[in-house]
């Protein structure tokens, strides 16, 4: 009997244990159901940092955006809901009714501002008070769903000045929040320190969060901001200049830039191929490539000064040594090359001033393959410039083996058989105006904000001697005063530079289409600037002196307009 009593007691203890276990489990399930019903988890998007010009124009800024969803099955009074909500959803009453009548969960809006989301949350509570939503039983509890308002995973991006500074500014993909091209892409690659936060809180009958001390909040870490070297007003005016030049010359694209010679800071970088980042379309995406850094082309005569500079460096020729130019006609390999200014002899200086292909070919062949290959590489050709933009092209050079051929050295000397980009030429020309020192072009002056990384030091290397750079500056000044670049002459301001007109090759055949360019300088006692202009495939006029040089002149006059350069007596 005693034994039977012990067995019964053990059995009762086991039953009690399982009863407690199942009760606890049921309570957990009910609690979970309660939390699922009455709690809501939200991501708080980190806001992408701003991009600001040196004169305080905000080109891009991040903001939070929200989506609003609704399930038509829970609408008790669709007419009332549509009447009161249409204005907040930027839709007509009919559009809202059509969505509600689908009787499924649908997104009514995907890009609401913070204020619009607050207004809609307030409206949802007002509609709930008026009985516009049906009640339903969920896990034994009566609920009502109104508008479900949630912050989007990535912040929205605003571009207050439309297409200003495009395409170098770039844009942010709306769904992923990733930068696609330009500074926006470079931002992701180098400076993106964003981290989303999280929020867990009770919700009301309309599905909206109840803010209280009981909520759990992890703050987001916002992105850093970029301060650019660009002068917004100068940028805007230079964009107007390139737009007018594109129309005047019926060109495919016109590009221009103004850079401080000593620092490499770019004050303006304009293209006629722009788009509005706030309204990206398949058509506008065709302009989403930054041709100033990605488009490699045969540059033509703007290459000639580099050949002469390399010869000066090695003491192979003097500024006034004579070069035979065969009265304007010379056979090079299987081709006949000609000059616009036919002379039997020219000085080395006049080979540049008169843009002699024959003279440059003769001079280039004086350089051995190692010297021309290493020398042009030192100027930055066939390698990325290092500008703070993504997807830069390195261009093309025949290389050491190619330069073993006299013909390759000769043709590269006057800008064929070698491909370069606009930004490489701007960087290379800057050496002549910076005492022989090459610097890296840059757009970003500073990065600021929480966890902002340190800026990398820019390249600053001597390429040629001060003496050689001064000689080249004198020659390029004479090119403007007496040579083929007179259109770049400005009374009272020191200007110098070189034009380049080169045929475009397609399918291995040179066409009657052209690249026109001008690269040069504008200096006063306090400031020195390197300025470039490129006109791609103009149809109305074909010479750089007619198309590119006037753009240079307009850019200098804009510098004067904004007090960045001052006129004085110059030689």
Strand content: 15-25%
For the largest beta-sheet, the strand count, sense and barrel status come to: 5 strands, mixed
CATH class of the domain at 232-442 and 454-561 reads Alpha Beta
- Structural class comes to alpha+beta
The number of helical elements comes to 16
Word description of this protein:
- Helix 8 packs antiparallel against helix 15.
- It is elongated, with a radius of gyration of 34 Å.
- It has a domain of 319 residues: 3-Layer(aba) Sandwich (Beta-lactamase).
- 34% of the residues lie in helices and 23% in strands.
- The protein starts with a helix and ends in a 10-residue tail after the last helix.
- It contains 16 helices and 24 strands.
- A five-stranded mixed β-sheet has the order 9-3-2-12-20, with no helix packed on it.
- The chain is α+β, with helices and mostly antiparallel strands and 571 residues long.
Give the topology, please.
Blueprint: H1 2-38, E1 39-44, E2 51-52, E3 58-63, E4 66-71, H2 78-85, H3 93-100, E5 105-112, H4 114-129, E6 135-138, E7 141-144, E8 148-151, E9 156-158, H5 182-190, E10 197-202, E11 216-218, E12 225-228, H6 232-249, E13 253-260, E14 266-271, H7 291-294, H8 304-313, E15 322-324, E16 329-332, E17 335-338, E18 345-347, H9 348-353, H10 357-364, H11 369-378, H12 399-403, H13 406-413, H14 422-433, E19 437-439, E20 444-448, E21 460-462, H15 466-481, E22 494-506, E23 509-523, E24 528-536, H16 544-561
Parallel strand pairs: 2-12
Antiparallel strand pairs: 1-10, 2-3, 3-9, 4-5, 4-8, 6-7, 10-11, 12-20, 13-14, 13-24, 15-18, 16-17, 19-21, 22-23, 23-24
Helix pairs in contact: 2-3, 6-16, 8-10, 8-15, 10-13
């Amino acid at each position: 009997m005693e034994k039977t009593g012990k067995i019964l007691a053990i059995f009762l203890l086991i039953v009690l244990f399982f009863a407690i276990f199942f009760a606890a489990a049921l309570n957990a399930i009910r609690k979970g159901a309660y939390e699922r019903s009455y709690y809501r988890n939200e991501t708080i998007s980190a806001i992408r940092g701003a991009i600001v010009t040196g004169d305080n124009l905000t080109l891009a800024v991040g903001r939070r955006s929200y989506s609003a969803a609704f399930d038509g099955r829970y609408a008790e009074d669709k007419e009332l809901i549509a009447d009161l909500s249409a204005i907040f959803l930027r839709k007509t009453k009919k559009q809202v009714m059509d969505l509600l009548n689908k009787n499924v969960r649908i997104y009514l809006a995907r890009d609401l501002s913070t204020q619009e989301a607050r207004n809609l949350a307030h409206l949802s509570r007002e509609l709930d008070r008026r009985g516009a939503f049906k009640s339903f039983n969920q896990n034994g509890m009566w609920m009502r769903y109104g508008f479900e308002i949630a912050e989007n995973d990535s912040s929205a991006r605003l571009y207050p000045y439309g297409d200003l500074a495009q395409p170098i500014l770039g844009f942010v993909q709306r769904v992923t929040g990733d930068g696609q091209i330009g500074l926006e892409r470079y931002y992701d690659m180098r400076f993106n320190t964003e981290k989303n936060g999280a929020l867990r809180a009770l919700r009301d009958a309309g599905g909206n969060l109840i803010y209280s001390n009981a909520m759990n909040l992890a703050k987001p870490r916002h992105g850093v901001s970029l301060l650019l070297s660009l002068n917004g007003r100068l940028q805007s005016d230079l964009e107007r200049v390139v737009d007018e030049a594109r129309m005047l010359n019926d060109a495919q694209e016109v590009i221009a830039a103004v850079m401080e010679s000593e620092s490499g800071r770019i004050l303006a970088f304009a293209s006629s191929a722009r788009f509005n980042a706030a309204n990206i379309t398949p058509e506008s995406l065709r302009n989403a490539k930054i041709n100033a850094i990605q488009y490699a082309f045969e540059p033509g005569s703007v290459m000639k000064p580099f050949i002469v500079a390399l010869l000066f460096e090695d003491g192979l020729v003097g500024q006034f040594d004579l070069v035979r130019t065969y009265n304007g006609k010379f056979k090079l390999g299987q081709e006949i090359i000609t000059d616009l200014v036919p002379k039997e002899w020219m000085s080395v200086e006049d080979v540049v001033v008169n843009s002699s292909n024959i003279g440059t070919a003769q001079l280039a062949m004086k350089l051995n393959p190692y010297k021309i290959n290493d020398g042009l590489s030192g100027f930055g050709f066939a390698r990325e410039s290092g500008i703070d933009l993504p997807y830069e092209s390195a261009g093309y050079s025949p290389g050491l083996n190619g330069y073993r051929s006299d013909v390759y050295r000769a043709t590269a000397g006057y800008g064929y058989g070698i491909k370069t980009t606009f930004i490489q030429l701007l960087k290379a020309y800057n050496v002549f105006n910076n005492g022989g020192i090459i610097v890296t072009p840059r757009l970003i002056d500073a990065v600021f904000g929480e966890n902002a990384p340190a800026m990398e030091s820019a390249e600053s290397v001597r390429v040629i001697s001060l003496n050689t750079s001064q000689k080249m500056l004198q020659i390029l000044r004479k090119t403007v005063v007496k040579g083929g670049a007179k259109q770049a002459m400005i009374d009272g301001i020191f200007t110098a530079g070189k034009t380049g007109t080169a045929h475009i090759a397609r399918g291995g055949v040179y066409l009657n289409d052209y690249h026109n360019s001008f690269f040069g300088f504008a200096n006063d006692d306090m400031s020195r600037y390197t300025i470039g202009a490129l006109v791609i495939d103009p149809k109305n006029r074909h010479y750089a002196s007619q198309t590119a040089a006037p753009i240079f002149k307009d850019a200098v006059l804009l510098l004067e307009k904004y007090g960045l350069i001052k006129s004085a007596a110059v030689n």
